Amino acid sequence: MTRIPEEDRDIIEKAIYLPMVLTILNRDLTVIHKSPFKLKDPYVNLIEKTMKTIQNELSQVKQYMKKNNLKVFELKRDEAFTMYTFLYKGYEEHHNYFNPRIRNKVQELLEFYLTHLGI
Fold it and tell me: What InterPro entries has UniProt attached to this entry (predicted)?
């Protein structure tokens, strides 16, 4: 049974997922710069705008975590699972995440940010 309220757990999970989304966008930006697109600027602008939005949100997440004494770090990883340690107001909890679930959540967030900024 977790002692962490759902709202705080959601914030902690954002601290896990958002850096992954930024990593993917960074790689995509590199690919676009190297690709033979005739008009790269619209893609580059969309990705950069998305990255700026995610960076701002990640900054807010980090501020909230610092203010509320929350921490998260990766404990171990194997082919199927990644274990994270959540530190919540003096309590330590270990949470296992199925790697395909992480990938799916990161993809969901990527689609969310790109579609909401692309409109």
Answer: YhjD-like
